[in-house]
Structure formats: structure tokens, C-alpha cells
């Protein structure tokens, strides 16, 4: 069966709208309303253009609407539409005007690219080659590795869990008071996507060390370089991966 | 063996194995519980359950010491020490359904998370068995209290509850329930405890419905000084009905405006003439917006055990000035040197303070200063009030570089029954004034100090950047827009319909 043009139009627009809304509904990362509005104007305009490119297709698109008004047999449907349409318009107008002004949209890159060099602890780290010096113990001496992880746990539960949470899910006691929220370590879309050197950089330099697309003015992530030693940071990094069962991203795969 | 013997033997082993596994499940497997405990619980509650994990020193309330067998949030009667198994499940999985606050899924406003999303039901049972084992708790002898005999929260019940509250609760919870009691309280483990602020039920650990409060009043909160009011030995014993009445009253104390929303903007309201210097009717034209507070744990001396958890703000402006009314609940008015204040305080008493922070100059959103007192390149201006009456205007370029600011600020505060209300007044900055005709958003952040809690200098509570909005354009009411849209669309329809009919008639 062929889908009528008008229904096609409605379906295409609805599907695209749903796609734009999906990140907000499912991932809790909504696209700002003002952006959605802009995209939708574009979408409607483009679809209309395509669908009315020939006279026949334009006719096919609009004929059901015309029939609604002109065909006496459709009087009942028409009356319903004629009542509903103004009410919908009123509702939309109310919604738009009562929202008043919307604050400027804040788009923030969650995992911005680090600088290539980082100065800390009196030396310079080359981010491209930096590795966790304690990682080797995982295969070489499990006992020492476990001791490092345990120390990392102690560091985490003295410094980080207030924000990042006792479950490492980014929902600590004070997380709700911070914008942006602390990030989770548990789950896939987290440190599992990052190399240990990246996590090391984030812990050492914190929010203020972010490049401008990361929102350095707003992040409450502390810079730990003068509160934790280099080795302590590597230990807590080991703990974050070990506790969550995540594996650091291998350098071989990164950037290729 | 005979045919019959097979059946009997089979049935026997079936029944025993079901019974055995049922008891194992019902009481949980201690060994398995230990494994769960060591993975998830030990860093707060301690390796051996003594409440002394690495996190313990940084928490108020501190994590429970399981070796004593005292539990706070239970529903078995006051003379029954052991919580029911359902109580244990609720303590560990949380009362997530009440008054949701993003991220709080366990015991609200504590570090204790809810565990149902990481630990399966059987492992929860196992860890409960392990906890009970730590203090040798057996099954409770008495069943949970009856929570069905409900007195509806009618006007009369609340009115009766109000009197009871004044008699038995207000000495700790304060006259208006803001937690500003006149008693210094310690729990059995020696930690400072603060009676709950009953106007903010989303901070309750164990549910905020009248029935939950009834349970607290009836059972008490073991280990703390909040007693059971069902104990006939107590001079303050209350009848069952009276306990429902006081629970209904306590539930009615909620102040919804204090509960922060997501991404709220303080909408400053334009007034003609002078701005008020003090709280009063003139402020009714503006609405409060509320924000959660986090303790400062980023730089310098850190605060780990805050007493303040939210702040509410509204703003008025005229052609030249802006005024902010900043209101927050604080259990104590901190007057250094005052005897009665010292008696309530945890240690040395410092001043209570409030600060409002703005970018010294506005740029694009991605160019604003660091919310923690700005930086060299992007300074902030801070308006600071202290409860000794001093007011300062500060320009800061990071925490290390603080000097007198350019703004002329006046501020006045008054403490009443557990709430500070401070009115700040200052000139509209040039950029704000210029933007106000079309509507402008100005980043703003707040900082608060509770001097009786040892808050001083970098030790304070704070918000991140939020916005206040200035808009002079005497906007049209949304209802007018809505009616206009209805009329316009309807007229268009009529025109179209008439046109179509004419076309057909022809």
C-alpha cells in the first residue's frame, strides 16, 4: 500500500523530531530547545521543498487538506479540526511566551582533547607516550598491584567520593549541587573510553586545566597536583579502573 | 528399596533441600555477604564494620558502626533493638521514592547511597546477614509497629499537632521546625548531630510522608537524642493519636519554594521608586529561586561537614540599583564570644557570612571567569556581608589576589527562628543596565558561612554559576498571547472556509 503524501510528510517530520529529542529522553543530555527549533524549521522547509518539487506531488500533498474544507461529507472531521487547531495554536503560544527568556545554551565537550605536553610535579609529561608506571605490576606481581589498588581506594575515599560517589557512579552526596555534574567512572561511556594518561591529566589539572571547549569556568573538579603526589594519582587511577572493571583504552587504538 | 521407599526418600530430600535453600536465602549467606561488604561497604563502614573506613573522618553523619547493633531508621518498637529484615532492605536500598533529588537514591543528604542498582536481591540478603553477624543480632522478637491506624492530615489534626510540637519537638527542631533547637546534641558514637530542618523534607533519610514521621516519633531515632514518644516511661509520652497529629503537623511544615529546581534563573522584577532595605511585602512581587549548596572542597582549606544545604534568592531592580534578598536556614546565629552561642557550637565560633559573586565584566558564555573567585585574566566582583554588620565589595583574581572592589554595596541581615534573611543593594553595573532593555542574563554565584560550624575563610558552602535575568520590556502576559493565537487561527480558518465554499458554489 502506498502511504499518502500528507502522512509521509507527517511521519518524516515526526521521526526527525523524535531523533532530536532522543538524547534528552534516553541519555539525559538534551539538545537545547532553541537548537531543536532551528533544526526543525530547516527540516520542515526542506521536506516541503522536496515534496512540492513537481505540481503533481504538491497536489497530492495538499489535496487531503483541501478536501477537508471543500468536501461536504467531511464536515464533521472539519469541525473537529477547526476547533482543535486554534486550541493547539493557543497552547503553543502560551508555552513559548510563558517560558520567557531562556538562558544562553551551554554546550560543553565532556572529553576534550588534552594538550600534547603537560607541566606538573616539576617536569614535563609528553601526553603521547605517557603510561601508568604502576600498570606493569598487574601482570608482573599481582600482590603489589593489589596493594596499589587498595591504596588508591583509600585515596579515593578520602578525596573523591563526595562528588563522584561511593558507587563511582558520579552521584556523590554533593553531586546534585554542582553544574556540570561529576562524571561517572562506572559503565561504558566513561574512563573506559580513555587512556590512563588522559585520566592522569584530568586528575592532575582538574577543571581549571580544561581547554575552553570543556568549560573550565564551571567545572568543580579540583586540580590535585598540590594535594596528591604523582604516584598517588597513578594509584587512584588504577583503583578507578579496577573497581569498575573497566579497561583503559590502549594507545595503539587511540587516534588511529 | 521399594517403589514407595523411592517416593518417600525423594520427597524427603526435595523438602529438605527446599527448606535449606529457603533458610539460606531468608537469612542470607554470611560468607557471600562478606565478599559484597568488602567490595562495596568497607571504605566507609570499615574493614571490620566498626565505622572506621578511610572515608569516615570526612563524614557527618558518620558511617554506621555495625559492631554495636544500633540502627537509626527502623520500624520495630523502641524496646526492640533489632530492625526487621524489611527495615534492613530499606536502609540499604534507600527510600528513593520520596522527594527525589537528582543523585540521591539512598539515605538522603548523607553519603550512604542506595544499592539496589549494583547489588542483587540475594546479595542484599547476604550482606544483611553479614551485618547482623557483626554485632550478633538475632531475628527481632517484636514485630514492626502498626502503621495503619492512620489519622488523616485534616486541619484539626494539624492544629492539634501544632500544640504538641511546641511542647515536645521544638526544643530540638526549633519553633518553626528549621532545626534551630536550643540544645547541643551528640549521638551515641560521639558525633555532633543536628536536628532535621523539617521545612525541607527532601533531606529526610527515611521518608517524608506522615506515616514515615509517625514511625520516627513512635520508634525514636536510636543512637541519637531523638527519643521514642511511645515509651510510657518517658515524661513526654504521647498517645497514638497525638503521634499521628504531630506527624501530620511536621509533614505540613514543608516549604516547597526551598526545593531547588534544575537550571533555574532568578528573575529580577522591575519596580518604580526606591528598593527595600529589609524583607517585607514589597518583595512579594518577585519569586524565590533556590539552589543547592556544596561544601568548598576544591582549594585551600576544605569543608567536609557542612550544616547549610540550600539557599533561596529573589531580586528587585529599578533604573539605577538592584537588590537581592538572600534567605537560608542556619541552625545557629553565630555571634563570636556570646555564651549561649558558644554552648551550642561545635568549636570556636566565627561569623556567619554571605557572599554574592558576579563576573567583573560580561563576555561570551565560554569566556566567563572561574566560579571559584575568578582568575588573573578574568576577575570577579564579590559582595560580602557578615553578621557583625560589616559589608565589603571585593574584586578577586583568584583566591590569592583579593582587593577592594569598585561596587558600592549596602547589606543588612536579620536572623529569625532558624533563618537568615539578608538584603543586598548595589548599583546596576553599566553592562547590566544596557542589557536590561532587551533582557540580559548575568552569571551569579553564592557563598555562605556558618560560623558555629567552624566555617571561615575558604571553609564555606557555595553554588556554582547560575543566572539572574534583568528584563525591562514590560512583556505581554502569556494568556494574551494564547488568546491572540486562538483568535488569529480561527479567523484564518473562517476565511479559508469561506473562500473554499465560494470556489465550490461557483
Walk me through the structure.
The complex is a heterodimer of chains A (256) and B (506). By secondary structure, chain A is mostly helical. Chain A folds into 2 domains: 5-97, no CATH class; 117-244, Cytochrome Bc1 Complex, Chain D, domain 2 (Orthogonal Bundle). Chain A is built from 9 helices and 2 strands, in the order ααααββααααα. In chain A, strands 1-2 form a two-stranded antiparallel ribbon. Chain B has 4 domains: 3-135, Cytochrome Bc1 Complex, Chain D, domain 2 (Orthogonal Bundle), CATH 1.10.760.10; 155-252, Cytochrome c-like domain (Cytochrome Bc1 Complex, Chain D, domain 2); 256-473, Immunoglobulin-like, CATH 2.60.40.1190; 475-506. Mean pLDDT of chain B is 90; it is low at 20-26. Chain B contains 11 helices and 17 strands. Chain B is globular and about 90 Å long. In chain B, α6 (155-173) crosses α8 (240-252) and α7 (210-219) crosses α8. The termini of chain B are far apart. In chain B, a hairpin with a 5-residue loop joins β11 (391-396) and β12. Chain B has helices at 3-27, 30-40, 42-45, 85-93, 121-134, 155-173, 210-219, 240-252, 339-344, 430-436, 478-505, and strands spanning 185-186, 192-193, 265-267, 269-270, 289-292, 294-295, 310-317, 321-329, 353-359, 380-386, 391-396, 402-404, 409-416, 419-427, 440-449, 461-462, 466-470. Chains A and B meet through α3, α4, α6 and α7 of A and β6 and α11 of B.
Write the layout of secondary structure elements.
The complex is a heterodimer of chains A (256) and B (506).
Chain A: H1 5-27, H2 33-51, H3 55-70, H4 75-98, E1 117-120, E2 123-126, H5 137-140, H6 142-159, H7 161-164, H8 196-205, H9 230-244
Antiparallel strand pairs in A: 1-2
Chain B: H1 3-27, H2 30-40, H3 42-45, H4 85-93, H5 121-134, H6 155-173, E1 185-186, E2 192-193, H7 210-219, H8 240-252, E3 265-267, E4 269-270, E5 289-292, E6 294-295, E7 310-317, E8 321-329, H9 339-344, E9 353-359, E10 380-386, E11 391-396, E12 402-404, E13 409-416, E14 419-427, H10 430-436, E15 440-449, E16 461-462, E17 466-470, H11 478-505
Parallel strand pairs in B: 3-17, 4-7
Antiparallel strand pairs in B: 1-2, 5-7, 6-16, 7-8, 8-14, 9-10, 9-15, 10-11, 11-12, 13-14, 15-16, 15-17
Helix pairs in contact in B: 2-5, 6-8, 7-8
Amino acid at each position: 500500500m502506498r502511504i499518502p503524501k500528507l502522512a509521509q510528510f507527517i511521519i518524516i517530520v515526526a521521526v526527525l523530531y523524535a531523533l532530536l529529542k532522543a538524547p534528552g529522553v534516553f541519555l539525559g543530555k538534551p539538545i537545547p530547545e532553541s537548537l531543536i527549533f532551528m533544526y526543525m524549521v530547516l527540516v520542515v522547509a526542506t521536506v516541503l521543498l522536496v515534496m512540492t518539487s513537481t505540481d503533481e506531488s504538491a497536489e497530492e500533498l495538499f489535496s487531503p487538506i483541501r478536501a477537508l474544507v471543500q468536501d461536504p461529507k467531511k464536515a464533521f472531521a472539519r469541525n473537529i479540526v477547526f476547533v482543535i487547531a486554534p486550541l493547539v495554536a493557543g497552547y503553543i503560544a502560551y508555552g513559548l511566551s510563558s517560558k520567557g527568556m531562556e538562558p544562553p545554551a551551554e554546550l560543553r565537550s565532556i572529553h576534550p582533547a588534552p594538550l600534547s605536553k603537560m607541566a606538573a610535579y616539576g617536569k614535563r609529561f609528553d601526553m603521547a607516550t605517557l603510561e601508568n608506571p604502576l600498570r606493569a605490576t598487574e601482570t608482573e606481581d599481582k600482590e603489589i598491584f593489589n596493594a596499589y589498588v587498595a591504596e588508591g581506594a583509600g585515596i579515593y575515599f578520602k578525596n573523591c567520593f563526595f562528588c563522584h560517589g561511593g558507587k563511582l557512579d558520579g552521584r556523590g552526596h554533593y553531586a546534585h549541587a554542582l553544574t556540570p555534574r561529576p562524571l561517572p567512572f562506572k559503565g561504558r561511556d566513561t574512563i573506559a573510553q580513555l587512556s590512563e594518561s588522559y585520566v592522569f591529566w584530568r586528575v592532575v589539572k582538574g577543571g581549571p586545566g580544561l581547554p575552553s571547549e570543556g568549560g573550565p569556568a564551571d567545572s568543580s573538579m579540583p586540580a590535585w597536583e598540590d594535594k596528591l603526589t604523582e604516584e598517588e594519582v597513578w594509584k587512584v587511577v588504577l583503583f578507578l579502573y579496577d573497581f569498575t572493571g573497566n579497561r583503559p583504552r590502549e594507545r595503539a587504538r587511540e587516534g588511529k | 528399596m521399594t517403589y514407595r521407599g523411592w517416593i518417600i526418600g525423594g520427597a524427603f530430600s526435595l523438602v529438605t533441600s527446599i527448606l535449606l535453600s529457603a533458610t539460606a536465602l531468608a537469612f542470607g549467606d554470611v560468607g557471600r555477604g562478606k565478599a559484597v561488604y568488602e567490595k562495596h561497604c568497607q571504605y566507609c563502614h570499615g574493614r571490620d564494620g566498626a565505622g572506621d573506613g578511610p572515608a569516615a573522618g570526612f563524614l557527618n553523619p558518620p558511617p554506621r558502626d555495625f559492631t554495636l547493633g544500633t540502627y537509626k531508621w527502623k520500624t520495630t518498637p523502641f524496646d526492640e533493638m533489632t530492625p526487621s529484615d524489611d527495615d534492613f532492605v530499606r536502609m540499604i536500598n534507600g527510600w528513593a521514592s520520596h522527594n527525589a533529588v537528582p543523585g540521591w537514591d539512598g539515605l538522603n543528604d548523607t553519603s550512604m547511597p542506595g544499592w539496589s542498582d549494583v547489588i542483587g536481591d540475594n546479595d542484599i540478603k547476604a550482606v544483611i546477614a553479614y551485618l547482623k553477624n557483626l554485632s550478633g543480632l538475632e531475628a527481632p522478637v517484636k514485630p514492626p509497629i502498626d502503621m495503619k491506624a492512620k489519622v488523616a492530615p485534616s486541619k484539626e489534626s494539624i492544629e492539634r499537632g501544632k500544640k504538641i510540637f511546641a511542647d515536645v519537638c521544638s526544643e530540638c527542631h526549633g519553633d518553626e521546625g528549621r532545626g534551630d533547637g536550643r540544645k547541643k546534641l551528640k549521638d551515641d558514637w560521639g558525633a555532633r548531630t543536628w536536628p532535621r530542618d523539617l521545612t525541607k523534607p527532601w533531606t529526610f533519610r527515611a521518608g517524608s510522608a506522615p506515616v514515615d514521621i509517625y514511625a520516627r516519633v513512635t520508634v525514636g531515632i536510636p543512637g541519637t537524642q531523638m527519643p521514642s514518644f511511645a515509651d510510657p516511661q518517658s515524661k513526654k509520652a504521647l498517645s497514638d493519636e497525638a503521634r499521628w497529629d504531630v506527624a501530620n503537623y511536621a509533614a505540613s511544615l514543608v516549604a516547597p519554594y526551598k526545593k531547588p529546581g534544575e537550571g533555574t534563573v532568578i528573575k529580577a522584577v522591575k519596580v518604580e521608586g526606591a528598593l527595600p532595605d529589609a524583607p517585607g511585602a514589597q518583595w512579594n512581587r518577585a519569586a524565590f529561586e533556590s539552589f543547592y549548596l556544596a561544601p568548598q572542597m576544591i582549594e585551600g582549606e576544605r569543608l567536609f561537614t557542612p550544616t547549610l544545604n540550600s539557599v533561596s534568592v529573589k531580586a528587585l531592580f529599578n533604573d539605577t540599583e538592584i537588590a537581592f534578598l538572600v534567605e537560608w536556614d542556619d541552625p545557629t546565629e553565630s555571634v563570636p564570644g556570646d555564651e549561649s552561642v558558644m554552648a551550642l557550637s561545635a568549636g570556636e565560633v566565627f561569623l556567619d557570612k554571605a557572599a554574592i559573586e558576579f563576573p567583573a565584566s560580561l563576555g561570551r558564555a565560554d569566556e566567563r571567569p572561574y566560579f571559584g573567585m575568578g582568575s588573573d585574566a578574568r576577575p570577579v566582583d564579590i559582595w560580602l556581608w557578615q553578621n557583625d554588620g560589616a559589608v565589603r565589595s571585593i574584586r578577586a583574581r583568584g583566591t590569592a589576589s583579593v582587593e577592594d572592589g569598585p561596587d558600592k554595596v549596602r547589606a543588612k541581615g536579620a536572623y529569625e527562628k532558624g533563618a537568615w534573611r539578608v538584603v543586598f543593594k548595589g548599583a546596576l553595573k553599566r553592562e547590566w543596565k544596557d542589557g536590561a532593555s532587551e533582557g540580559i542574563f548575568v552569571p551569579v554565584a553564592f557563598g555562605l558561612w556558618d560560623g558555629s560550624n567552624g566555617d571561615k575563610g575558604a571553609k564555606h558552602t557555595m553554588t556554582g554559576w547560575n543566572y539572574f535575568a534583568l528584563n525591562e520590556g514590560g512583556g505581554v502576559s502569556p494568556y494574551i498571547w494564547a488568546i491572540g493565537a486562538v483568535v488569529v487561527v480561527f479567523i484564518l480558518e473562517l476565511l479559508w472556509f469561506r473562500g473554499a465554499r465560494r470556489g465550490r458554489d461557483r
